[in-house]
């Protein structure tokens, strides 16, 4: 049962909106548009994410049992319209019945949804050039970041998806690779695609996002093989198999 206290905590810690519209944008990726007056004045930098409460955590029992963290899932914002007080998220269906996947798969217009204010440091920074690497879950943040880059900024990158029809349309021409049924976890395919990029000799800034072990491998390539400093590489792990909160 929800109480006055849990309602107060919800309104203090979360933004509460309503699902307005859903759209299947690839066979396994679904766009969710969320709006409401509570989104008025929301501040967002392209690349930042929100954390959705994909289960009902606003009960005294949930707070007492410490179920809050396991009910929150991270999603990048694809688009923010401050005029109409809306945000658009795109979620990837990993299969199975994980909390985040189930919510994305079943979200319907009219549903109430609570989420944290936008946060995160995966945002574009001044650099000689920009390098993007990740899979489907990363391409959502990448799309927003690429739209925010001024014309003339030099961009390189590789994006992995299961098949040709699983890629999101992005505003810059990044290398597309397909794993054709192979696992996105610890993907050597993405590492090899980055290895083949004809990057300048000097480092730029890299933005790596998606499956945790894969982006660790891409970062290792940049640091060990190309001589980049770790500070030149920005990472955001969104998921990895078997880790609670990242499923």
Commentary on this structure:
- This protein has 247 residues and is α/β, with parallel strands linked by helices.
- It is built from six helices and eleven strands.
- The radius of gyration is 18 Å and the shape is globular.
**What's the N-to-C terminus distance?**
27 Å
Cα Rg: 18 Å
Number of strands: 11
Major sheet: order of its strands? 3-4-5-2-1-6
Poorly predicted segments = none
> Please, how many helices?
6
Q: What's the SSE pattern?
A: HEEEHEEHEEHEEHEHE
Task: Specify the biggest β-sheet.
Answer: 6 strands, antiparallel
User: Helicity range of the residues?
Assistant: 10-25%
Summarize the entry for a quick read:
By secondary structure, the protein is an alpha/beta fold. The protein has six helices and eleven strands. The chain is globular and about 55 Å long.
Features:
247 residues, alpha/beta, 6-stranded antiparallel beta sheet
Give the SSE map.
Layout: H1 4-13, E1 15-26, E2 29-35, E3 49-53, H2 60-64, E4 72-81, E5 86-92, H3 99-106, E6 112-115, E7 130-134, H4 136-148, E8 155-161, E9 175-178, H5 188-195, E10 205-211, H6 212-225, E11 233-239
Parallel strand pairs: 7-8, 7-10, 8-9, 10-11
Antiparallel strand pairs: 1-2, 1-6, 2-5, 3-4, 4-5
């Amino acid at each position: 049962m929800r109480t006055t206290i849990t309602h107060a905590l919800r309104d203090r810690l979360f933004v509460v909106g309503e699902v307005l519209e859903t759209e299947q944008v690839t066979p396994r990726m679904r766009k969710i548009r969320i709006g409401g007056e509570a989104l008025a004045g929301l501040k967002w930098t392209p690349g930042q994410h929100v954390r959705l409460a994909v289960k009902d955590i606003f009960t005294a029992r949930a707070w007492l049992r410490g179920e809050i963290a396991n009910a929150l899932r991270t999603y990048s914002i694809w688009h923010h319209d401050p005029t109409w007080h809306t945000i658009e998220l795109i979620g990837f269906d990993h299969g199975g019945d994980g909390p985040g996947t189930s919510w994305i798969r079943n979200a319907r217009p009219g549903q109430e949804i609570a989420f944290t204010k936008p946060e995160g440091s995966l945002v574009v920074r001044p650099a000689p050039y920009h390098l993007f690497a990740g899979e489907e879950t990363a391409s959502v943040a990448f799309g927003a970041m690429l739209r925010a880059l001024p014309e003339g900024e030099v961009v390189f990158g590789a994006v992995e998806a299961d098949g040709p029809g699983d890629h999101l349309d992005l505003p810059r021409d990044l290398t597309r690779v397909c794993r054709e049924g192979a696992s996105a976890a610890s993907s050597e395919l993405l590492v090899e695609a980055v290895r083949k990029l004809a990057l300048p000799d000097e480092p730029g800034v890299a933005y790596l996002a998606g499956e945790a072990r894969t982006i660790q491998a891409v970062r290792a390539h940049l640091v060990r093989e190309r001589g980049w400093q770790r500070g030149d590489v920005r990472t955001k792990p969104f998921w990895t198999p078997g880790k609670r909160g990242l499923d």
